[in-house]
Amino acid sequence: MKLLRQKPNDAGLQTLIEQVEQEQPADLTNSAGLLRGVWELNWSSSQQPWLKPNARLENLQILDPDHGRGCNLLRLRGPLSALGGIRVQAELQVADSKRVMVCFRQGGWVGPSLPNRQQLSWMRKVQQSTPAWLDITVLDEQLRICRGNAGTTFVLLKRNDLNLSTFFGV
């Protein structure tokens, strides 16, 4: 955890991640409730810039499996985060002890909230041609490691300072 927070580009992280996956395998049968919350991407095996951690951007994944919903949000850090960001909304379903099925529904820009609490946004329907999923390999109160349907490994840390209701208006 310390290495993820302080040196997310450390060359030894991939080996440590694989070791934790072997030592602490997730079982959503008993722990699916731990998915709920706001998670921040801290490490990724992807080469795509929007799927890699960045010091200037928050790469958040907001999960609410009890209500079958989630979203990915990429926004600037700090006070500029209120300007909005790029968001993709999805329907989620826990399929078995490891897999969460993901059906992307819409994506686009979400902006600041107006004084009447209405949020500016420009969203379009997403045409998802193939099934998507996340295989959850490690899950606890602070750490989630998962592998996407394209084989990418993601390591996320829970953001207890951010509230689910902020993102879903609950």
Quick overview:
This protein has 4 helices and 9 strands. It is mostly beta strands and about 170 residues long. It has an 8-stranded antiparallel beta barrel with strand order 1-2-3-4-5-7-8-9.
Series of H and E elements: HHHEEEEEEEEEH
Helical proportion? 10-25%
Q: pLDDT under 50 segments (min length 5)?
A: none
| Main beta-sheet strand count, sense and barrel state | 8 strands, antiparallel, barrel
Distance between the termini: 30 Å
Global mean pLDDT: 91
Classify the secondary structure makeup into a structural class. Answer: mainly beta
Number of helical runs? 4
Beta-strand share of residues: 35-45%
Q: What's the β-strand tally?
A: 9
* Overall shape: globular
Q: What is the gyration radius calculated from CA atoms? A: 16 Å
Question: Taking strands numbered 1, 2, ... along the chain, how are they ordered across the largest sheet?
Answer: 1-2-3-4-5-7-8-9
Topology of this structure?
Layout: H1 2-6, H2 13-23, H3 28-31, E1 37-44, E2 57-64, E3 69-76, E4 85-94, E5 99-113, E6 119-125, E7 132-139, E8 143-148, E9 153-158, H4 164-168
Antiparallel strand pairs: 1-2, 1-9, 2-3, 3-4, 4-5, 5-6, 5-7, 7-8, 8-9
Annotation keywords:
mainly beta; eight-stranded antiparallel β-barrel; 4 helices; 9 strands; globular
